[in-house]
């Protein structure tokens, strides 16, 4: 049976050649045997608009490689992360993928799953949620995309530096999910199992919510571990407790 694969938080950038090489190997190996691939955000370290394909050869190579996988009969889906929320229709068309809303429910082998990037679950980080609301606003995005490419790149670097500085001063638990928010989301979506990234804290959590046993899979990032540990295959019920 062909698998369904889930990845997130690759943060691809030309300054991380090992991660990039691992991603290309993945596209040429495990991913080719899959039925579908879900990329749950932060594929790129930053994305400043789809004209990045015109200015950045590295981004173009990633797009072409994903498109080649899609052309080999693998359905590819992408969800925006907190670093690449400006990925748009031009990239989707070039990479032959489908952009998903956050959250999205899917069904695999008659099993429903809830997919998220994961940042909406981190509601204890009030400052981040304020920032997220700003950058996801269509008017804000339109204003940013109207700026020259060089100015957007400089802004992306500035935001990344500010983010790193802010995280250094925050307690770890603030940047993880809020359990009360997780439980509320389970209730809202009928207690189906959940898959997300964002926190870079891979694990499978079991939550008992209103006497329902719910599983929450947190995907790994692609920074430190062997690639095979970053693929969550939940195509069979046995993969989730």
Topology:
Elements: E1 4-7, H1 17-28, E2 36-39, H2 52-55, H3 57-71, E3 75-79, H4 89-95, E4 98-100, E5 104-108, E6 111-115, H5 126-135, H6 138-145, H7 149-168, H8 179-188, E7 193-196, E8 203-209, E9 212-218, E10 232-233
Parallel strand pairs: 1-2, 2-3, 3-4, 6-7, 7-9
Antiparallel strand pairs: 1-10, 5-6, 8-9
Give an account of the 3D structure.
The protein is α/β, with parallel strands linked by helices. Helices cover 36% and strands 19% of the residues. It is built from 8 helices and 10 strands. It has helices at 17-28, 52-55, 57-71, 89-95, 126-135, 138-145, 149-168, 179-188, and strands at 4-7, 36-39, 75-79, 98-100, 104-108, 111-115, 193-196, 203-209, 212-218, 232-233. The strands form 2 sheets. The chain has a 5-stranded mixed beta sheet, covered by helices on one side. A hairpin with a 2-residue loop joins strand 5 and strand 6 (111-115). It starts with a strand and ends in an 8-residue tail after the last strand.
Query: Which regions have little confidence, pLDDT < 50, spanning 5+ residues?
Result: 226-241
- In whole angstroms, the N-to-C terminal distance is 20 Å
Oligomerization status of the protein chains: single chain
Shape: globular
Secondary structure tally, helices: 8
What amount of the residues lies in strands?
15-25%
Give the tally of β-strands.
10
**Alpha carbon gyration radius:** 18 Å
Overall mean pLDDT stands at 90
Largest sheet, spatial ordering of strands: 4-3-2-1-10
Largest sheet: 5 strands, mixed
Structural class: alpha/beta
Helix and strand element order: EHEHHEHEEEHHHHEEEE
Helix content: 25-40%
